[in-house]
Automatic annotation (TrEMBL):
This is MBL fold metallo-hydrolase. Residues 47-224 form the Metallo-beta-lactamase domain. SUPFAM superfamilies: Metallo-hydrolase/oxidoreductase. It comes from Arcicella gelida. InterPro entries: Metallo-B-lactamas, RibonucZ/Hydroxyglut_hydro.
Amino acid sequence: MRITFLGTGTSQGVPVIACGCEVCQSLDFRDKRLRVSIHLEIADKSFVIDTGPDFRQQMLRERIHKLDAVIFTHEHKDHTAGLDDVRAYNFSQKRDMPIYARPSVLEQIQQEFAYAFTAIKYPGTPQITLNEIHNTPFEVEGITFTPIEVLHFKLPVYGFRIGDFTYITDVNHISDEAIEKVKGSKIVVIGALRKEKHLSHFTLSEAVEVLDKIQPEQAFITHISHQMGLHRDVDEELPAYIKLAYDGLSVTC
Ligand SMILES: [Zn+2]
Ligand SMILES: [Zn+2]
Ligand SMILES: [Zn+2]
């Protein structure tokens, strides 16, 4: 399996519009973070987890010419806003795009993209098929995804384990039961916003604490804010097995 970080930034992205801070002004390409998403290539199958507002740009940058399905973590706009652009795959693949999410997320998507779900559609509207998932393993194109339910303030969010790889984005609480499901993963990706306390996201040290319990071979931090600091500095402060992810980074598992 090949995993590509399409975006590693928090909801506003980095740089933030109209911000003059050191991180937003940095010339290091690793300090430029689009909204969070990953691409998974498994055998000849191709999936993305979430379609944030930068989806189009990310698909073009990584030259992803084929997409079999979209799997959603939760309904926040920084994870869903780009869904309209699956139209390009509707045209090129001549079929509907299957999306997978929990019922509450599917409901939100049907409200936000109501025009894609009306009985009579304007020509060129995205063609999407809805697939409900629950907190139990499910298959997409023969690949098994195991949801890892976590909390993002009060909102339940799904992380996903696929084989030896686990991806968890927006989170500030993980139950012991969920940690057990992640254990044994070789690579774990987890969200951490910044170093200071936050209402709905882990801080960097809280994420490190969770990773220490899981003990993967390799771990990456994502969903990063400009308040985290410069990539170069923060990366050096971390234990050897943990790295900050950056846009375009690709790993195999
Ligand atoms: Zn988010
Ligand atoms: Zn800034
Ligand atoms: Zn969120």
